[in-house]
Amino acid sequence: MPETMNGSALREIVLGHDEQIGLCKTLERIADALPNSVDPALCRAAAGTIHRVMTRVVQVEHEALALDLAERGPRRVLDLTATIERLLRENAEDLSYAEELQETLRELSNGHHTLSADALGYMLRGFFESRRRRIALEREILTAMADPVQ
């Protein structure tokens, strides 16, 4: 991970990545338990966590990426400004998806879900697989920003 980036911002991003990875593991456990072995308590816990984690991630990434990395990008050999802007736009979409997933998990935990097991599994896997790819991309960007091409 980069050493030249603001240490506090880096710690917050890495903490956000770690929280998201933990959330992804929980969502994967739920998806794997469909349709008959879903733990309502695990669904409630995930529903209570997902919006908090995603809201925090969006805020931290906006502050770090938009303010810190975007300012540095043009001064590097590789200009990541457009990529960073796209990532920030996608954050809003991901937060909206997280809110929808939160409600679905609450319904599932109460036994009142309206989606089929296949649809719910697709929804869960779509979210956590996307987040995992996003975390990998962000870590590559942070590494690129720390180690300029020479």
Return the average pLDDT rounded to an integer.
84
Estimated radius of gyration: 17 Å
Strand content: under 5%
Q: How many beta-strand segments?
A: 0
Flag low-confidence runs. Answer: none
Oligomer category: single chain
**What is the percent of helical residues?**
over 70%
Structural class: mainly alpha
Number of H/I helices: 4
Shape: elongated
SSE run: HHHH
Biggest sheet layout = none
Q: Domains counted in the coordinates: how many?
A: 1
Distance between the termini: 18 Å
Describe the structure.
- The protein has 150 residues and is an all-alpha fold.
- The chain has one domain.
- The protein has four helices and no strands.
- The model has no long low-confidence stretch (mean pLDDT 84).
